[in-house]
Structures are given as structure tokens and as C-alpha cells.
Amino acid sequence: MPREAGVGLFPAIPTIGRTDYASVTPPWVEDKMDRGIARYVFPRTGRGAVVLFDVDSHETLHRLLNEWADFIPAEFGIYPLMEPEAIRGFLKEDSGDFSN
């Protein structure tokens, strides 16, 4: 089954404790990291962060983005990703015929 990945951006983090990276990761994201749903959290230069989710369906990603938007106004960019082994297999199978 294909995996779905989503990248979310969360807005400004309060300046109190901003220099401590652990304190800028919201508990909601920490829970997803602990459960393996979020693979990485990257703080952005200036404000916000990028989170890479690894979920099993569009519906799961949709649920996560709605949960996030319920408590933090955010902008989302969605980028479907493939594991390196999967893309190699896909490229080996691809005949270049897009008529199907």
C-alpha cells in the first residue's frame, strides 16, 4: 500500500523558551513523533516549523491536518513521497507507455 506524506507548517512559537528546541515542539507533534506518525520536525528560519508525516492513507493525513488546524492556524503544503526502494522498482517497471 502506498504511503502518504504531508508537510505542515506551524506558525510563530512564543518567544519564551524559543532557544530550547525541545520546548518549541508542541505536545501534539511530540505525540505523533513517539507513535511514528511524524518522522521529522524541522524548525524554519525565522518562525514556524516543517513536519514530515508518514501515514498509511489520505484519510489519516486528512485527519491529522484537521486536528492541527483546529488548534494552530497553519498553512499546509502536501508533497507525496516514495521510499527510495519503491521509486527504484517503479522506474524499473516503467516502460514509458502512458496510454493505460
Quick overview of this protein structure:
The chain is an alpha+beta fold and 100 residues long. The chain has 4 helices and 4 strands; from the N terminus they run βααββαβα.
Fold and architecture overview:
It is elongated, with a radius of gyration of 16 Å. Strand 2 (38-43) and strand 3 form a beta hairpin. 36% of the residues lie in helices and 18% in strands. The protein has 100 residues and is α+β, with helices and mostly antiparallel strands. It has a single domain, classed as Alpha-Beta Plaits (2-Layer Sandwich). It has a 4-stranded antiparallel sheet with strand order 2-3-1-4, covered by helices on one side. It starts with 6 loop residues before the first strand and ends in a 7-residue tail after the last helix. The longest helix is centred in the middle third of the chain and has 14 residues, at 58-71.
CATH level-two architecture? 2-Layer Sandwich
Q: Helices and strands, in N-to-C order?
A: EHHEEHEH
Q: Counting H and I runs of at least 4 residues, what is the number of helices?
A: 4
What is the structural class?
alpha+beta
Radius of gyration: 16 Å
pLDDT averaged over residues: 75
Shape by Cα distribution: elongated
Strand order in space, largest sheet: 2-3-1-4
Summed up, the domain count is 1
Major sheet details: 4 strands, antiparallel
Could you tell me the number of beta strands? 4
CATH C-level category: Alpha Beta
Output the CATH topology. Alpha-Beta Plaits
Provide the low-confidence segments as ranges.
none
Helix content: 25-40%
Strand content: 15-25%
**Through-space gap between termini:** 20 Å
